Structures are given as structure tokens and as C-alpha cells.
Amino acid sequence: MKIGDLAHRTGVSRRLLRYYEEQGLLRPVRLPNGYREYAEGDVAAVHHIRAMLAAGLPTAVIARLLPCVHDDGGRMVPTACPGMLGNLRRERRRIAETIERLQTSQRALDIMLAAVRPEA
């Protein structure tokens, strides 16, 4: 299928699909005319990519984990691949640390807001 077909079936823009290719997440076949030809499995791959992005994973990590997931009745199911658990734990720690920093910033802003007197 062509890039427009994949975009239509996944709800992801052509531009974003090209970005996924640049990041090594999708590997369409290049036809002699330069067009990209996507396989049926790329539809599921795009859905998996979107799910992992929504979980906060960077594309470099997704590239390592993408071969370790499959569909089971329209649901993404991870399988135990070497390094998967370590990658997921590391990313969860990174996200937890980011949340903690943001909560600290939020508390500091709350203190500043509480100290500001309303303008007359």
C-alpha cells in the first residue's frame, strides 16, 4: 500500500510516517519510481508506535522494542525480548523523575502565587 493509504488507515499524517521511517521504525520497500510501498503489517506497527509514544517512550527505545510486540485481537501484547524489561523499567524511572521535578516546580509556583497580592 502507498503512504496515503497507510495514513488513511492509521490516522497518522504522511509527514509523521516519513519521520517514523527516518527513525528506523518503519521500513517500507522503495519502488523504482521512488514511492514507498508499505506492507499490511505496517498498519499494526504504526498503532504500536503510537501506543508506545503515548506511554512516553522515545523513538530510540521504541525502535528496540517494536520487534517485541504483536497484536492479539487488536490489542498490543509485548513478548519477553532481551532487554525489554530493562528498557521499560529505565523509561518508567525517567518519567517518574520528570514527574517529581515538575511537582517540585508546581509547589514553588504555588508558593509564589500565594505570596502575590492581587492588584487593585
From TrEMBL:
Keywords associated with the record: DNA-binding, Repressor, Transcription, Transcription regulation
UniProt xrefs under PROSITE patterns: HTH_MERR_1, HTH_MERR_2
SUPFAM superfamilies in alphabetical order: Putative DNA-binding domain
Domain of life, per lineage: Bacteria
Lineage of the species this protein comes from: Bacteria, Bacillati, Actinomycetota, Actinomycetes, Streptosporangiales
UniProt-listed SMART domains: HTH_MERR
Protein's recorded name: MerR family transcriptional regulator
InterPro entries (UniProt xref): DNA-bd_dom_put_sf, MerR-type_HTH_dom, MerR_fam
Species assigned in the record: Nonomuraea phyllanthi
Gene Ontology molecular function: DNA binding; DNA-binding transcription factor activity
Pfam annotation, one family: MerR_1
